[in-house]
Amino acid sequence: MRNILVFFSLLLFLSTNAQNPWKLKKDKNGVQVFVRNVDSSKIKEYKAVTQINTSVEQALSIILDGNRLADWNYKTSESKTIRKITDDEYIFWMKNDLPWPVKNRDNVTHVKVNKISKDSIRVDLAPDRTNAVPEMDGMIRVTNFKGFWLVSQKGDKVEVIQQLYGDPKGNLPSWILNSVLTTAPYRSFLNLKSLLED
Fold first, then answer.
1. What is the C-alpha separation between 73 and 125, in angstroms, rounded?
2. For the whole model, what pTM was predicted?
C-alpha cells in the first residue's frame, strides 16, 4: 500500500512540474533567473542560478550568517541570527524595506542545512513556527513562503541556486509582484558574487 502511495505521489509531482515549466526571465552578468506558475497561487515562484569563483564553505559562510544578510540581500535593511539551534539549524530574522506607501515586510525563517553529497549542500528555508520574534508594529509579517539554497562544487567553480516562493500578504496586486519578481534575486545574486569574489 505504501509503495502505491509513493508511486502516485511521484506521478502527481512529475505532472505538476510538467504543467508548470520554468521560463527564463533574465540572463545577465552570469546570473539567470527563472519563474514558473504555482498551482495554488497567482504569485509565481522563482529560481536564480549562478556560478562563483569561491568554495562551497565560503559560500555557505555568507548564506548562513544571518547577521550579514542585509549586506547583500536586495532591499533587506536589517537582519539577525536569532538562534543557533545546532551547527546545521538556525532561526533568522529579516526586514525588507518597500517604497511608501507600502508597508515594510519582515519574516522569521527556520533554516536547515542538509548534506546531499560530498560536493553539494542544500539549505531549506521555511517559516519559523515558534514565535521566536513577536510581530512588530508598522510591518507585515510574511508567513507563507518556502524555498531552498543549493550550493554545489562544479569543477573549479561553485554553483549557487536559490528557489523560492513567497506571498508578501497585504493588498499588493499579483501582477505587480510578478513583474518585479526577477529584480530581487538578480540583485541579490550580483551582490553575493561580488562579496565572494572580491
1. 15
2. 0.86
Exposed (0-12), middle (13-18) or buried (19+): which is 32, by Cβ within 10 Å? buried
Phi/psi-derived region of residue 170, left when phi > 0, alpha when psi is between -120 and 50, beta in every other case: left
User: In order of start, what are the domains of the chain with their CATH numbers?
Assistant: 23-197 (3.30.530.20)
Q: Helix, strand, or coil here: 98?
A: coil
Q: Is residue 161 helix, strand or coil?
A: strand
Strands 104-117 vs 120-127: parallel, antiparallel or unpaired: antiparallel
Encode pLDDT of 38-53 as tens digits: 887 788 999 999 999 9
Cα–Cα distance, 12 to 91 (Å, whole number): 32
